[in-house]
Design goal:
The protein has 48 residues and is mostly helical. It has 2 helices and no strands.
Amino acid sequence: MKNNHDQTSEGLNQILEIVNAKGDKGELNEIVKRGADDPKKNDSPAQN
């Protein structure tokens, strides 16, 4: 499990990528797919 700082940093990076996509559906789908493909990124305290 990653430490809280790493999880926060990755979450903020993903939010910035979504904001920068500016509604580009293809780019938004890529961002979502990357997050879904990496189970480590989906670790949340609620699931552990």
